[in-house]
Write a structure and sequence with these properties.
The structure holds three protein chains of three kinds. By secondary structure, chain A is of the alpha/beta class. Chain A has 17 helices and 13 strands. In chain A, the strands form two sheets. In chain A, strands 1, 2, 3, 4, 10, 11, 12 and 13 form an eight-stranded mixed beta sheet that branches. A five-stranded mixed beta sheet of chain A has the order 7-6-8-5-9, sandwiched between helices. About 10% of the residues of chain A have low confidence. Chain B is of the alpha/beta class. Chain B is about 35% helix and about 20% strand. Chain B has nine helices and eleven strands. Chain C is an all-alpha fold. Helix content of chain C is about 75%, strand content about 0%. Chain C is built from ten helices and no strands. In chain C, helix 4 packs across helix 6. Chain C is globular. The chains are: A alpha/beta, B alpha/beta, C mainly alpha. The interface between A and C is large, with 41 and 37 residues.
Chain lengths: ~375, ~325, ~270
């Protein structure tokens, strides 16, 4: 009996202490720590990214010493803005979860995957990295025209840009979505199955590098259509938590990301350093060869300058695109509730779940001149 | 003369050795020169007659267990033959029953099932069990009846449905004896059967063996085959008490006038032992003198004489 | 604290067990509470109301008269049962023959030892070639993952049977085949059931991992898609169901063992 009492005591003590002191929230969200630190010290912010031509740029920035992705170490740009940016590389899917649970301040996502996120975490799009114009493909064997897809089974990741790209292309070709059977499969697995010539795998939708691999390995496969038919509709971008931007150093964090990104873009644009930079990106993108990377670059339309990006953010096209994407997400149960998407700075669009905010682009244009 | 049909087991010129090239240890005088063989048995000749209870004794390491395994057929001898009922035995079979010190019973069967499983395995097979389920069921009933009867005879009437782990050591060994006896084997081998039991229980089990011996007379008269038992034990008193014949193996014997160069253990003592029915007091004097005789012949390393001196069983038998 | 000293009263360990479970649940809701303090709109560590919503979502009847949980449980449990069942049958054959016959032991043991170290989850592409991407693949994956382990357990259990028992069976007139299935099988049955119990976890891991990659119904599929959409209320409800299924199967096997192996010393 005595033992039991001791045990209950220990248990209850652990519980009390557990309630009182343990499981600290992410340090970045704790205003106390911010105040406790000396004014001069660099604030910590984190960015989760996965391998993708537009996002591997951050990996390159780390290699070049512009951004030091390690905690407590500062690259040149980090010093300039006095922020400590922590780069966290992971798979695409975990990026979504990590951002959604508040573990990171910023994340690299497509415009579509941003929508379910912003319902839980009020988010701001600050930097469009690239748009897919051919990077997402529908690869087929023995199918000549989109009309031939009727009655066939198409494999790809459900509720993702792959499905969006397919549905939009079917629309463009006046084919009803119900006429094509869509079966969920991981894009890497679908590509593998097609490369192995598994019967029934006549059509898959995937993104690079899986598409390039499949086209190279299976010589009889062709691209039926790709995302170049819907230019600018699949946007790969960096989104930041609204709350993080409002924190001390939040604005500097956003500017540092933009500055670093455009510095690498400058090198990519310059014919002298183009190949070298492309090689560095390829190293961070499935270790592709330079040749393959050139092909990938064709399908991925980089937005090289902040001026271009600003124009893109303020165009009517992007507004229409977002309407389409939101509609798709609602009709395909990607989101339960229609998210409010707006364009403009905090004053104009601060009440939206997600806003494309050109403030930081404008700022960086000024400083770059 | 002895009827040939009365010989149940014959060990004919059995020699056995172990390959011990990997064994660095030199074991006594059994490990000789550059020879890699650890000699165990040398030219062992034993004939067991039907209805005898033979005790096999000898100093530890003399090869009692090796001989038992050879007779059982699990480890046939490297030289010589074991002949059971006229045919050479080279694998364990239903002709030889065995009771080990432990592990004799199947833990997943009750006492009665443990006893009945023998006939079931023996008299039916997979095909007959599958295609004649009713017949099998009926046979099973008969076997269970016989098993219950046998267990009752051995004083286990109230433990029929106990699992081995629920029984005492003595009960387990008695069940194991029943399990072997129901098969009516040509010979029942007991390998140190009561070694792990406490003294009272051991005496009880020894009395059981004597009862079986007493039943042999009756069985003969009824035309049934009498029980033949070979018991391996390290206890001389037990050996003399329960058997009507004691055989001792020993490596201490004079071979070729050279006591150092021993080729393995052999039979150095073979003599009748008085039978004491369960309720008769044993004669201490006679008992101790035989015990001393065996000790001298088999257990004393200094006593190293020809193996024939105490091999008097057949002489006595033929003279009588 | 004396080592292995049991409680005098039966209710004590039960009470302590319940406390530990409540502690775990309490810790979860505490974390959820903290997370919602930081972000009231958080969906990653759902509160109880969010979980309830998730539950009603997965039990909502669609226009085809089906619920998510119904469809997915049916698919996943079918694959799981079939996979575990076939692994057990195969393991029995392999384990018993390895344990009993020297030739098969020499032939199968090295392959078995090698395969036991390969994680099937890392070999999806091989399974595509071998089995395609249908139900066969899920079952093959479970079978591939479990069979080496279970058969090795059976093999070891067979090896532990004393030789005396086997010799004894021969003296009772049994032939080798009879001895294998009437004696040896019965003696290793508890070890087999224990091995199956321990395999439920890995089987689920293999199956869920495969379903996450391939297929459009099943627990793995739903969990992957819904976690991409940050619908953790659905994901956690599914996890609760998974835990329940696992617990139930474990309980069932324990019960079967207590019925079939009542001869075992407790």
């Amino acid at each position: 009996m005595k033992n039991l009492f001791i045990l209950v005591l220990i248990v209850s003590l652990t519980f009390t202490f557990g309630c009182g002191g343990s499981t600290p929230p992410p340090a970045t969200d704790k205003p106390v720590t911010v105040q406790a630190k000396p004014v001069g010290e660099a604030q910590k912010f984190s960015l989760a990214w996965s391998e993708w031509p537009g996002w591997s740029v951050f990996g390159v920035a780390h290699e070049l010493g512009i951004l030091d992705g390690k905690e407590g170490k500062l690259g040149t740009i980090e010093k300039k803005y006095n922020v400590d940016i922590i780069l966290k590389e992971m798979e695409y899917d975990p990026c979504i979860t990590v951002y959604g649970s508040g573990q990171v301040d910023a994340v690299c996502l497509t415009n579509m995957d941003t929508l379910p996120n912003c319902l839980g975490v009020k988010s701001v799009g600050i930097l469009p990295n690239d748009t897919s114009e051919g990077g997402d493909m529908c690869i087929v064997v023995g199918i000549k025209t989109p009309a031939d897809l009727k009655g066939k089974t198409v494999y790809g990741l459900e509720k993702s840009v792959s499905q969006y790209m397919l549905v939009r292309n079917l629309e463009l070709n006046n084919i009803k979505e119900s006429e094509v059977k869509w079966v969920n499969m991981d894009p890497a697995a679908a590509a593998t199955a097609m490369q192995q010539k598994k019967p029934g795998y006549d059509a898959i939708v995937a993104w690079n590098p899986f598409c390039l691999q499949t086209l190279a390995t299976r010589t009889d496969s062709t691209v039926l259509f790709d995302s170049s038919t819907i230019p600018g509709e699949i946007i790969d971008m960096v989104i930041v938590k609204d709350s993080s931007l409002k924190k001390k150093g939040g604005k500097e964090f956003a500017l540092a990301l933009l500055d670093a990104y455009y510095q690498v873009m400058d090198r990519l644009k310059d014919p002298k350093t183009e190949d070298e930079t492309l090689k560095l990106i390829a190293e961070k993108f499935s270790n592709l060869s330079l040749e393959d990377m050139r092909k990938v670059k064709k399908g991925t339309k980089y937005i090289y300058t902040p001026e271009e990006a600003l124009k893109f953010f303020e165009s009517d096209k992007i507004k229409k695109t977002m309407e389409l994407v939101v509609d798709f997400c609602v009709s395909h149960a990607v989101v339960d509730k229609k998210p409010v998407v707006k364009f403009g700075n905090e004053k104009d669009a601060g009440d939206a779940d997600f806003r494309f905010d050109p403030t930081y682009l404008k700022e960086i244009i000024k400083t770059r001149k | 003369m002895i009827d040939k049909n009365d010989i149940v087991v014959e060990c004919k010129n059995i020699s056995h050795w172990f390959d011990c090239r990997d064994d660095n240890k030199k074991i006594g005088n059994l490990w000789q020169g550059n020879d890699f063989r650890k000699k165990v048995l040398y030219d062992v000749n034993i004939k067991v007659l039907r209805g005898e209870i033979v005790a096999l004794v000898g100093p530890s390491g003399c090869g009692k267990s090796t001989l038992l395994k050879a007779i059982l057929g699990t480890h046939p001898p490297l030289q010589g033959d074991v002949i059971i009922n006229g045919s050479i035995s080279y694998k364990p079979s239903r002709h030889c029953g065995i009771v080990y010190q432990t592990y004799s019973l199947f833990p997943f069967l009750t006492a009665i099932e443990n006893v009945a499983i023998g006939p079931l395995l023996d008299k039916t097979n997979t095909v007959s069990r599958t295609f004649h389920p009713f017949k099998t069921q009926e046979m099973k009933k008969t076997f269970h009846k016989r098993a219950a009867q046998l267990l009752d005879d051995l004083g286990l009437g109230n433990a029929l449905n106990s699992y081995p782990h629920e029984m005492s050591g003595g009960m387990r060994q008695r069940t194991a004896i029943a399990q072997a006896l129901i098969m009516e084997p040509e010979i029942l081998l007991l390998d140190e059967p009561f070694g792990a039991l406490d003294e009272t229980t051991r005496e009880e089990c020894q009395r059981l063996l004597l009862t079986l011996y007493m039943q042999n007379e009756k069985r003969r008269n009824e035309g049934k085959t009498p029980y033949t038992i070979l018991i391996v034990t390290h206890e001389l008193s037990e050996a003399i008490l329960v058997s009507d014949r004691v055989i001792a193996l020993s490596q201490h014997w004079n071979w070729n006038n050279n006591s150092q160069d021993c080729p393995g253990a052999t039979v150095v003592y073979d003599s009748p032992a008085p039978v004491y029915p369960p309720d008769v007091e044993k004669e201490i004097l006679e008992f101790t003198s035989q015990k001393n005789e065996i000790k001298k012949a088999a257990f004393d390393p200094k006593y190293c004489q020809s193996r024939d001196i105490y091999n008097k069983y057949w002489k006595l038998l033929l003279n009588s | 604290m004396i080592i292995r000293k049991p409680f005098q009263e039966k209710w004590k360990p039960i009470l302590i067990g319940l406390i530990s479970i409540f502690l775990m649940i309490g810790l979860y809701f505490f974390m959820s509470f903290r997370q919602h303090e930081i972000n009231p709109k958080d969906t990653t560590i759902p509160t109880i109301t969010q979980l309830m919503k998730g539950f009603s979502k997965i039990t909502a009847v669609s226009h085809r008269g089906q619920t998510w949980i119904g469809q997915d449980s049916k698919a996943t449990l079918y694959r799981l049962f079939l996979g575990i069942g076939m692994s057990v049958i195969l393991s029995l054959l392999i384990g018993l023959s390895m344990g009993c016959f020297a030739f098969l032991e020499a032939f199968l043991l090295p392959i078995n030892a090698l395969l036991a170290k390969l994680p099937p989850t890392a070999m999806l592409a091989v399974f595509f070639v071998l089995t395609g991407t249908d139900t066969t693949m899920f079952i093959a994956m479970i079978v591939f993952g479990l069979t080496p382990t279970i058969s090795q357990n059976i093999y070891l259990a067979v090896k532990q049977i004393p030789m005396e028992t086997i010799y004894k069976s021969y003296t009772l007139g049994g032939n080798s085949f009879e001895i294998v299935y009437k004696i040896i099988f019965k003696m290793v049955l508890p070890a087999i059931i224990d091995s199956i119990r321990l395999s439920i976890g890995p089987a689920m891991v293999y199956l869920i991992a495969a379903e996450m990659v391939v297929g459009d119904v099943g627990f793995g599929y739903r969990i992957r898609i819904q976690s991409r959409l940050l619908n953790m209320s659905v994901v956690y409800t599914y996890l609760a169901f998974l835990a329940f299924f696992g617990f139930f199967m474990d309980f069932l096997l324990k019960y079967i063992k207590s019925r079939l192996c009542s001869w075992q010393r407790t």
